[in-house]
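Sequence in, structure out.
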Amino acid sequence: MGFLMTVLYILLFLVCLSVLIVIHELGHLTAAKIFKVYCLEFSVGMGPLLWKHKRKGGETQFSLRAIPFGGYVSMYGEGVELPEGVEVDASRSLHGIKKWKQAIILVAGVTMNAVLALVVFFIGNIACEQHSFTYINEVSVVDDSIIANAGIQSHDYLSLASDEIWNDVDEFGNINSCMLMEVGTVTFNDDSTKDARVALVPNRSFKNPVYSYVLYGCNDDENHTVIQTVKYVDNIKSLSINLKTKDKENKENHFDHPVVINFEDGKMPDCGLRINVEDYRYSFGEAIGQSFKDFGRSATAVVDGLGSLVTGKVGVDKMSGIVGIGFEAKTILDELGVATFIYLWGLISVNLAIFNLLPFPGLDGWQLLVLIIEGITHKKIPDKAKNIVSFIGLIILLGFMAFILFKDIWVYIFQGFLVGIL
């Protein structure tokens, strides 16, 4: 079953990636057809040809190629030769139309990616239950766990020392909140003890619609500030606390649940306690508004990321390509749920749109820059010069992509394999 799920996920990933590519290239193709530019081929993927189709009397061959990363629309006037026996008027070449029409064709791909991102965000917002990141005092309990054996059951309400929940979670799900509990006792390896106010703090991953929590130790000062994670303190032997629950009908009735958590090599095991969040659904109008907010937030994140890369604040080692995105997407789907998985693909579509607008040889932004320069100077840049620069830029781009690919393979595949066998 695990192998089958892996295969299904790989297929899902390739389908999602292909949709982004197809939509981008369809933007170029549609705009070119509107302006009657002769298009020789519409290809999904790169490399060896797997399948092709050309309708009778049609102009454009539709192709599927072996490498499912990328695609292109081959237009008359881009340095490609017409098929033998085919004659097309120069007015139907890419450079035979007005420059403003050429510009629309060039930006049509990224425009379609931007539109697709908005559609994806809207689907995620309207179809999926949203996490408010507001915690409610209701628990879920893992069967046969430490907490379950202490008598606490799912849907019980905890009786908190402060009778309140601190909620402090940013829009990306980074969690900084806790639920204040009773004072407990930490026992160290030398059998010495120390009182510690215990708070419940969520870890980074969660499963829809329940968040996982770990216990933290914090001091018992006036502000109840969390000072130390007991999960990662090597010299702790055990943690004892008397958890209390409220009666669902009569909240004045409290029940004691003594809990002892024995640490394993200084690390705290999962105690089995999960605390629910308040979920909700967007209305149609709210989903539209939120989708535009998601788009703006994603675009800002992409631009900031590119800026950090250019300024050296973030190294190339922090970047990921197709392999890295694939592994991270699977983790998001497994741990953060469908809504976040859908949001990720909207973010990737925004990323493709902005990245393709960069004025780097081989990208749409480069061709747009050349077009603008020629329009301002009223002089055509020699095709030989453009071809040389484009070829060098493409080699650099492909080399960079290959470097990222091999880095991801090493980090996500080989290192994981080595860790598994050592």
